[in-house]
Amino acid sequence: MKYKIQPIIIFLGVFSLCVGIWQILQIKTMILPSWFLLLLPVPCILLVSFVLGTLVKKILNSKWRAITFASIFVIIFCSIFYISNFRSVYTVVIPEGYVGEIRLLVSNENDFSINNYGIGYIDRKTFDEGFYPKIIKGGNDITKQVKEYSKGALATSSGDVYSYEYLSFSVLAKGEHVENKDIEELIKIKAIDTSRLYRK
């Protein structure tokens, strides 16, 4: 029985590694492609796991193969990585005809139903910890069309100066450019509900 369990452990190790690779590929980067992030952690995990697996085999004087112990360490490392990088998935719903920048302003609640001016709301915890977006426009999933996300702040200059933090991304056709309204104009036309926002 103890020998029959080895293929199961090895399979779980390979499965854990595949899940870890998939998770790394979901990370959005501003400059380098997501697959570039695989070049360092995956070889390191495999090397360290194999070394530790070999040591444990010798220390225990076990008849199990070193790759079985290495698979156990792969499972441990990938589980730690998955738990530490877990992100909730939220659906961002965009009006069908909207083209331009989407801004999720830091608020006291999550409201991912984007209005006709590209404005939605995200609570402080989700903003700080991050999340995996599922972007729906006109009933179609366009998540893969969005290549990058950024964080920033919008400032007002009337009276006291306030700065509102936000997460943003753009929904544009290839080669298309759209001028976005500034925050004062959006507030003036009541596209932004400032009573819901956190001020820096």
How would you describe this structure to a colleague?
By secondary structure, the chain is an alpha/beta fold. The chain folds into two domains: 5-84, no CATH class; 88-196, no CATH class. 36% of the residues lie in helices and 22% in strands. It has helices spanning 5-25, 41-60, 66-84, 124-129, 183-188, and strands at 88-94, 100-107, 119-123, 131-137, 140-141, 150-155, 163-171. Strand 6 (150-155) and strand 7 (163-171) form a beta hairpin. Helix 2 (41-60) packs across helix 3. The chain is elongated and about 75 Å long. The termini are far apart.
Task: Summarize the SSE layout with pairings.
Elements (H helix, E strand, L loop, with lengths): L4 H21 L15 H20 L5 H19 L3 E7 L5 E8 L11 E5 H6 L1 E7 L2 E2 L8 E6 L7 E9 L11 H6 L12
Parallel strand pairs: 1-4, 2-3
Antiparallel strand pairs: 2-7, 4-5, 6-7
Key phrases:
four-stranded mixed β-sheet; three-stranded mixed β-sheet; 2 domains; alpha/beta; single chain; elongated; 36% helix; 5 helices; 200 residues
Number of helical elements: 5
Which strand order spans the largest sheet, edge to edge or round the barrel? Answer: 3-2-7-6
Residue-averaged pLDDT, rounded?
80
**Element pattern in H and E:** HHHEEEHEEEEH
Number of strands: 7
Percentage of helical residues?
A: 25-40%
Uncertain ranges = none
Span of the ends, CA to CA? 61 Å
What structural category characterises the helix and strand content?
Answer: alpha/beta
Beta-strand portion reads 15-25%
Largest sheet composition: 4 strands, mixed
Could you say how many structural domains there are in total? 2
Backbone CA Rg: 23 Å
Overall, the morphology is elongated
Transmembrane segments: 7-25, 31-52, 64-83
Organism: Pedobacter helvus
Keywords: Membrane, Transmembrane, Transmembrane helix
Protein name: DUF4131 domain-containing protein
